[in-house]
Amino acid sequence: MTTILTENGSKFFSRFDQDSSFFPLDSRLLPKLCPQDIAIISGCPGSGKTELLYHWIAKCILPASLCNGLDQRVILFDNDLRFDLFRFIKILERRLRCSQATNGISANASKNSLFIDERLKLLDIFKCSDFDEFVCSLRYLEVTRPKKYVLMVDGITSFYWSTKMRNPFGSSMTQDCVSVMTSLLRNVSRSCGMPVLLTRRKLDSSTDNDRTKLPVAWRNLVTKQLELVCSGITEKSTDVIVKDVTSGVRFQCGITSSGWKICILDTANS
């Protein structure tokens, strides 16, 4: 006997709206990413956190018509001062040439250069020298409320120790600083209507998850968490294991001269 499932109009549109509300940044690493999600990518130095941001920024600022992009503005806070614009442009160039070859479009160096210049106008980079400057910049975004954008912060805890060292009131004042920062990030996320992506250096490389060492305000802020571990280096690529902390799912990824490689589900460790 065949069973037919039915649903009324309200249920259909409710399901449709729910599915379409997801932000299609990365269906593998960040499935069902909602506009107000705050995701953090943690890992030891050299694990590929900034490279993953290159990959996502390119996805955001490139157009859907040519490179399957999102045509979306990005605001990046380069707190770790690791963002290499020359490297990022090379990734864009290779991605553009690959898309042109796939679609049978002849490459033109001058036109490609103009195209990339136009795409880079969708990327704003802030470089803050200390925690106070970072907070002031977040307050500016909170007040001005520019057009929709994806906010990324490379090195969300970069100013932790410098703030702690110059703080005469000890840990209580440091906790207050963290609370101010988390409150601003939450407000900015709500006002821009887009997800916020953060990177953070792991506090302890000997543990799988050091989330419990972070302040409560910070733990309550984060809705998705990925951990990156460098699993090997060859002449052509750096191999990286990406773990979804919540689900435990792992992906085998790689970093090459062309950027972040396609992720493959690590079934042996999932």
UniProtKB/TrEMBL annotation:
It comes from Caerostris extrusa. This is Rad51 domain-containing protein. GO terms for biological process: DNA strand invasion; double-strand break repair via homologous recombination. GO terms for molecular function: four-way junction DNA binding. The lineage of its organism: Eukaryota, Metazoa, Ecdysozoa, Arthropoda, Chelicerata. One of its GO terms (cellular component) is replication fork. It comes from the Eukaryota.
